[in-house]
């Protein structure tokens, strides 16, 4: 699977203010069954942490050695920049992305790599698609990415493909960077059947309420609109290669994420909001929902609850905000 100078896998972990979870995360990555120490590296990219995480990175490297743990210290530029630095530094045949507040099972690397032959560019542990055949890039977009699988964790990526195709995380996004990365990779494969989905569950995701999606509304949430516009723009040239249902799924996601942002605005309450930013978010949400509803079948593709939300929001955004606030705070 590898030549004498290449490791099997590089695990890339962006580190920012993660002192309480970092060591547990790294140890779970190091503790991989059926993988020799020399066959794997863990790359810790310190994104300008100020809570002591930087010191923990160095302590782990000193304890486990430079061959097993690589540490990159930098200024705070965000998770996309940190992951991109990790990609540039990686030496493994495959890349695995892990978040510093999560953990992995000891079988992660073995389960992922045993399904990766020479013609595989991505192995995805997911329950969004069940099948034994490899998927093409177009099939993966339609059946997996647009089926609410927009994260890069729990996956194995072929590093040479990533580099040859110059696929990187968009450093201008603070939300949705995973979505765009996956779409870029899938589009690079087009009709080639190079992607395999498996049903293993080796990634232990911890829902961090202080993370990008768990925190209170702020300006970075506007990237929810940006990333789904980017996704649509990237897919439109391939309309003939994917089914119409793919664009229905895309439009449904645009509607649901727009309402997610509106909900974040609503729960702040009138006295806590930045009125200018809140008005902008509501305006963007309205535009995105109206745009998405132009796709035939988009409204029908929504759940009953979302259909009610869309109708109420379109009738009166102000009333929707008030009702949503009362519902959440009541």
Structure commentary:
This protein is α/β, with parallel strands linked by helices and 330 residues long. It has helices at residues 22-30, 53-64, 79-89, 108-113, 137-143, 159-164, 177-189, 223-235, 244-268, 275-292, 304-315, 317-329, and strands at 7-15, 40-47, 69-74, 92-97, 103-104, 122-125, 135-136, 155-158, 193-198, 203-204. It contains 12 helices and 10 strands. The strands form 2 sheets. It has an 8-stranded mixed sheet, with helices on both faces. Strands 5-10 form a two-stranded antiparallel sheet.
Low-pLDDT parts are none
**Overall 3D shape:** globular
Strand residue content: 5-15%
Question: What is Rg?
Answer: 21 Å
Helix fraction by DSSP (H/I, runs of at least 4): 40-55%
Tell me the total number of β-strands. Answer: 10
Distinct helical segment count: 12
Task: Measure the end-to-end span.
Answer: 57 Å
Overall pLDDT score: 95
Instruction: Write out the strand line-up for the largest beta sheet, numbering strands in chain order.
Output: 3-2-1-4-8-6-9-7
Secondary-structure element order, N to C: EHEHEHEEHEEHEHHEEHHHHH
- Class of secondary structure makeup: alpha/beta
The biggest beta sheet is recorded as:
8 strands, mixed
